[in-house]
Design brief:
- By secondary structure, this protein is an alpha+beta fold.
- It has a domain of 88 residues: Orthogonal Bundle (Arc Repressor Mutant, subunit A), CATH 1.10.10.
- 29% of the residues lie in helices and 9% in strands.
- The protein contains four helices and three strands.
- Strand 2 and strand 3 form a beta hairpin.
- Helix 3 packs across helix 4.
- The protein is globular, with a radius of gyration of 17 Å.
Length: 133
Amino acid sequence: MRGLGNPRVIVPRPQRVRRIGRHGFGWLDARLHLSGWLELLTPEALSVYTFLCLAANREGVSWYRKDRLAQILGLSAAVLHQSLERLMRLELVAYQPFHRHASDGFYQVLEIPQGEPPPIEDLVVGPDDWTES
């Protein structure tokens, strides 16, 4: 390693460099961390966001049912709902129900918003902010 500049990057296992394969298009935008959005996510919301990124198609859309999402991630229905609400308030995820009265639907992972994230006080989600579907 040289002085204070950028170190020479060494790839420990070059034979295992990641590539987009036939099974998915999931990726996480580095701006999630670099622009300060990551600090606004609870561990549960980050878990939901990561899963939606991994499950999404080329357009960023996935359609897992809420009960299945909660089961896969080991979350209660209430915590899943609060996590999805936080992601939607941050405009990191959009939602469209399957049909007018459906409780499940399509989730789209959105491009990271430009600019600085909102103040964390704007994101407090409590029991009065949601109802069970």
